[in-house]
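Posted in: Protein Modeling Q&A

I'm a second-year student putting together a small comparison for a lab meeting, and my supervisor asked me to include a predicted structure for DUF190 domain-containing protein. I've never done this before, so apologies if this is the wrong subforum. The sequence is pasted below exactly as I got it from our records. If anyone can share the structure token output, I'd also love a short note on what stands out.
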Amino acid sequence: MTTDDARRPLSRTARRLTVYLGESDTWHHKPLYSELVHRAHAAGLAGASVLRGIEGFGTSSRIHTSRLLSLSEDLPVVVVLVDEPERIDAFLPQVEELVTEGLVTLDDVEVVVHRYREEPR
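Accepted answer (user: helix_wrangler)
Welcome! Here is the predicted structure, written out as tokens:
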């Protein structure tokens, strides 16, 4: 599968994979969110986004916040991947390998619009 595989329209029914992490989570000294995005890209998935939270807590029950007086080095991070259900399901073993602490969820979603810009050749 090549990264060009991602340049295909999604059908109306897709699957969303959401990974909730801490900003300081790593994989071999590299940010875990970045490793997830790069692997998703290499797998030819349709898209991935990383969202940085301003406040949150997880299993530690410790609140992490970006407020000025409470400098946090481990803000919440969410990685969202969307593609055909079969492609997301095939990617799950990699997610399970990488995520040793955090939360991973799956939802079936309805694609309303999926457009991309044609790149000049």
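A couple of things worth pointing out for your meeting: The chain has one domain: 12-110. The CA atoms of residues 39 and 94 lie 8 Å apart.
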